[in-house]
Amino acid sequence: xxxxxALLRRRWSDSDDVRTDGGTVDSGQSFWxxxxxxxxxxxxxxxxxxxxxxYGAILWNIVLSLxxxxxxxxxxxxxxxxxxxxxxxxxxxxGLLSVLPFVNGGAVEARSPSWAQLSVEPIWNSAWNxxxxxxxxxxxxxxxxxxxxxxxxxxxxxxxxxxxxxxxPMSLSFVVTAKFWxxxxxxxxxxxxxxxxxxxxxxxEIVQNPDLKLPAVAFALVWQFSxxxxxxxxxxxxxIPTSHFEAARIDGASTLRMYRRVVLPQLRTATVSALVVLTxxxxxxxxxxxxxxxxxxxxxxxxxxxxxxxxxxxxxxxxAYGSTIAVxxxxxxxxxxxxxxxxxxxRGEL
Amino acid sequence: MARVKLEHVTKRYEDVTAVDDMNLxxxxxxxVCLVGPSGCGKSTTMETIAGLTLPTEGEVYIGDREVTxxxxxxxxxxxxxxxxxxxxxxxxxxxxxxxxxLRKYDSEEIDRRVQRASxxxxxxxxxxxxxxxxxxGQRQRVAIARAIVRNPDVFLMDEPLAxxxxxxxxxxxxxxxxxxxxxxxxxxYVTHDQAEAMTMSxxxxxxxSGELQQIDPPLVCYNEPxxxxxxxxxxxxxxxxTPGRVTDGGFTSESYDIEFDPASLGLSPGDxxxxxxxxxxxxPAEQRASVSDPSMTIEARTDVIEPMGDEIFVYVVxxxxxxxDFEAAxxxxxxxxxxxxxxxxxxxxxxxxxxxSKVHLFDDETGQAICHGxxxxxxxxxxxxxxxxxxxxx
Amino acid sequence: MSKDNKGKRFSRRxxxxxxxxxxxxxxxxxxxxxxxxxxxNNSDGDGTGNQSGDGSGGSxxxxxxxxxxxxWSSGDGxxxxxxxxxxxxxxxxxxxxxxxxxxxxxxxxxxxxxxxRLQSNDPPSTFQTWPGKTLQKFGDAYESIEEDVWTDDLTNxxxxxxxxxxxxxxxxxxxxxxxxxxxxxxxxxxxxxxxGVDPTSLSSPADVVSACQQISDNTDAVPFAQQTSGTWSTTxxxxxxxxxxxxxxxxxxxxxxxxxxxxxxxxxxxxVELSEFYPGDSSSIDFTEANTMVMEGDAAFIHQGDWxxxxxxxxxxxxxxxxxNQVTYPGTSGSxxxxxxxxxxxxxxxxxxxxxxxxxxxxxxxxxxxxxxxxGSIPPRGDADVSxxxxxxxxxxxxxxxxxNQPPSIQHGLAVVPAxxxxxxxxxxGFLENYDAATTAQELVDSFK
Lengths: 350, 394, 449
Hints:
A: mainly alpha, MetI-like fold, 2 domains, 17 helices, B: alpha+beta, Rossmann fold, CATH 2.40.50.140, 6-stranded mixed sheet, 6-stranded antiparallel sheet, 21 strands, disordered C terminus, ABC transporter substrate-binding protein (chain C)
């Protein structure tokens, strides 16, 4: 087989030869000789695949959310509108009041979009839970990961063993960890309550306790992924020369200040990469909730956009409405990740 | 400004002793280089002075204070690192003023000091730049400014020029000397490059295997090395060493003999000694007249010639080539430095002489120097005899 | 255990045998099913076999393999489907079978697979689904089998309740295979005896609460084994209590969207009272663990579908009528609360002839006995020879035939369409957090809006 590009290139420059003087030949050749063009066989296929299956799918999902698509058959693209968004984000003020803690206000009326036989609830509750979970989980996970990384970085004994121990939970599937934590949270025999009762307090219902459900899920996810954050931070810490620590100490920085003013700022890249991945894991908490609550009905205090989305799409076959929720979720993830990516970009670190 | 004193400082890690019973007394305002090969313990010594490492035994004094257990920030020191260690997320000004800000100086004072420090190292107009926008030399100046700005009693510099290219390194050397003259602060400077140590320092502390070998002004280290290690380490190219024995009439080796009176040096025949002579103290025989105390003539053959421009290095072989193994060749080889107008060719028979007044003898057992220069009174009478002997041997 | 293994092994072997037989027979011909409904769906243009419902022999033609998707990938479900397919292969050796259990053994996963295949216009032959209102989910994708499968034999012999559930908007599209009863109260005989409770004397949900109190007072056992990590056990308990308290009329009003909030709330309040007698860690256990408590004598009652009895069958020395027993849930006598599985017929069927042959076979009493003997449920036909079923099943079958009514289960998808069921599930997921009967009652009534 001849290389078709080489063939094409020869033909191109041939025709130039005939038509023009050497200078133009050069420009023709220089196009084909450009690094970007010559390397196209390597970057173009993945570029197209990612473009189609990631960005194309996102775009298609956005378009779907504007339709009335439900049930079987194929979507009707002729009549696009924002009806689903109006239903999903109806009564924003009351919606926010109804979900914010310590505020008992804002009843939200369910809406009835034209396609719907039944009215649909706005998504304020699950959106709020998602934000709480995402922010709570990521912040705690990053903080814990950083703390572990700093400890491990201090060249403690059995460092590799510790690293493996911390990282191990991440390799478990959500199904396993959900069942594991269901057991850990058991009121009578679970470790958490054994500790609580041995400290002299009364046993606490966790799994179906509206106040503790979401924190319990976040805690389990932190347990599972702080090891990942640790590894990312550890790599970042290892990249900082020892002399930076020494310079800071000689300049008079206490350990706390040294980490805050010298080390942490240099871990920005590590933070961003961990943050992006952890945010995605927070979205994937769906699997965890699904396993923990035997289905996609974790209850109002732990309902997140992902469970709501799957309910609408697969239980109710409200495909367009499910897509709408997906878009909201996507935008939320962008809101969290974009500022960091942008600051990295501005610093020229991306 | 302060004197720095180490008394019996020992630093042991689990299975290695990095610094072994180190005693150092560095005077106020002195520029002292700690030199030695990699892993000799010079950096650890500096770290114990800085307080980055606590010694296992011994005491450290800076000024009049014992600082052995004090944290680095309370020792009145500033440090410049080999990899420069600027904080990449801060601009030049913030890097320089970091220590001052930690100590809560008011902003006017900070500005004044930063201005002065950056003037000294000539960083005008670069205060707002980020480290990654600067060249290696500029970054090193920032690192030095960061050290200057705190008016430390002692500067500690850990191979600060090692990561710079050769030309810049030479330039920065003079800058540092100028700086030292201007600030008159005690500087302790770690390097493995003996040329740096020779050119800049008031005294050189030569360290090997965690032990201090010699601390003296550069020329003393050069001319009167305390032992074999110092003799070999200081000077480039390094000193010629010839292992041999003491005889009734002086020194003998496989390659040549040198006449002297062993008794005057407290040596007795049969003692193993090593003779050392620097390349510039080896002369072609025809220049005998200009040598202050020439030895007998040594028959040799030129081997490799390295013209350096201002001088020529000639490797001459003094033993019979045919019988040599590699080790014997090393021992029987002499490096000679001659003037660039010499017309010496390779594989040529040549006669050389040593300047006896510049010959060093070392005790093989202890490595310690026995003498630097052989006494002149034993010289003339014996010269011809040795010549004949040498001729007979051939 | 050994039973399960046997079932699995058998089914795999039979599939191979079936495939081999089909291969040997080549174009031997097709059996079962009338071609009148094929339309243009079977692109191969078959040889138009023609025969009666469960007939034998037929004319030649391409018989595509049946694509049956189900979630019975383990346990008694797997043994049951194995027995059914084995029976079918014996009766129709020339029909090829491509059985495809969907991994995960969860109905939700199976539905997603079907949903995706329907979206890409590639339906399987049939799949395991709840009949009743659940059929609405893929409503347009089904095709009538009134003429080909629902012959007089079926219409005359299925009881009225199951027959209603087999229809989508009045048209037969599916063949119910089995019935699990929901309104059971199982109990450990020695525990209730120790407490001095006679379950047969209980006549209302309130009596159950009193009995639980008595058990709590007199024994160390948990009175009422229940899991609350998922909503389903609570939903089916509530629907049973609703049926008991509001009667068949009140129950039917609710599932028709005209529920009386007071009745709904009263049933919920009864559940709240019962919840006092749940295991302390009910939120961390699943149904199997709750059921085991009854088997081990750590709990007295459990309200469950009769699959709970399947576990009892597998335990030595734990026998029906001796160590364990069952009563119709107090207050619901005369009702047989239905939970069924069925095989529907898809339009654009990949194997029209074979599918109809298979569905017709599933409609026979013989097939249903084979299946239910393993599954622990009962045949939906009234004329089955249940002598091969165990004593408990025979008793349930008698109850079934003598029931005044056979209302559809809400939790098990027969009574309401999926979107309403989603709302009901959501209401119960909140109920499990706070046990607020009034709020949940309002949400349940509003589920139909």
